[in-house]
Amino acid sequence: MVSGIVAGRLAIVTGAGSGIGRATCQVLSREGATVIAADKNYAAAEQTIKSHAALASGFNDAGDHSALELDVSDSKSVKHAVQKTLEQYKAPPTIVVNCAGITRDNWLLKLSEEDYSRVQDVNLKGTFLVMQAFAQAMADKGKPGSIVNISSIVAKYGNIGQTNYASSKAGVIAMTQSAAKELGKFNIRVNAVLPGFTETPIVETVPEKVMHQMIKMIPLGRMGQPSEIAEVITFLSSDKSSFVTGAAVDVTGGF
Ligand code: NAP
After folding, report:
1. 135 has a pLDDT exceeding 80
2. How far apart are the first and last CA of the chain?
3. Would you say the CB of residue 41 lies under 6 angstroms from ligand 1?
4. 138 CB burial (10 A radius; 0-12, 13-18, 19+)
5. Where are the domains of the chain?
6. Which whole number is the average pLDDT over 222-236?
7. Which atom of ligand 1 is nearest to the CA of 98?
8. Residue 165 a catalytic site member
9. Predicted confidence band at 55 (pLDDT cuts at 50, 70, 90)?
10. Stretch 204-212: mean pLDDT
11. Which of 23, 55, 205, 214 has the CA that lies 20 to 30 A from 160?
12. Element (H or E) spanning 193, and its range?
């Protein structure tokens, strides 16, 4: 018998092949959920399920976990993911975590239209497509649920070299708040998490000098770990946060 704050729930996590998405799969599973790890890189998503199961690093072995190839920026791929999930589990996930995200950093004056659009397509449109498709599936089945969208602290303050990324993440907050207002009547909660600097591959492109400066501005004096973001995501996914919707929660070490 699996116990935990999301025991018996089916969860889908996008961007599950790495970083925060992978850690979220791990914590959701530890807390009793069956996890669908979705990523555009199927092998990485599969690794999330396999490596953690093999290492027994908190993954529950009761759930029928699975990996799924999903490009969140492609509506056909998202529709296919809903279909596949319904076929396999006979019910929609009632936890949806939008972790997939990319950066294409450059100075505003040098940023190409292509790099601007790609970031918007994955981070903002991708969140929209996944949220719309899976909320529809929940509403169709009359299932209450929780959607957690990963924004970023730079959505609030901006960041050098990230006009594309910061604006996409600010959009995620506004989208979350609007969706929360619309989906409340279906008992579907929608919240955003705003991570600060977190040790994952996405920050590997930040120059060391810049990273040093950043860390100086974090009151806790260090970067976050993916698991520290995942714990908050899991709380917002669970009924422990049953009266929280439309919120944007900073998880930044005080940055
Ligand atoms: P990560 O380690 O790079 O993980 C992101 C995952 O998303 C990767 O597996 C990536 O695959 C996948 N992905 C990219 N495009 C996709 C698409 N179109 N469809 C499906 N999956 C896709 O980054 P992370 O740090 O864990 O980031 C997770 C989320 O947190 C992102 O939304 C990010 O913006 C946000 N965030 C991170 C930080 C931080 O400091 N780490 C801070 C604030 C917010 P590939 O590797 O193959 O591209």
Report:
1. yes
2. 40
3. yes
4. buried
5. 10-251
6. 98
7. 32
8. yes
9. very low
10. 86
11. 23
12. strand 188-195
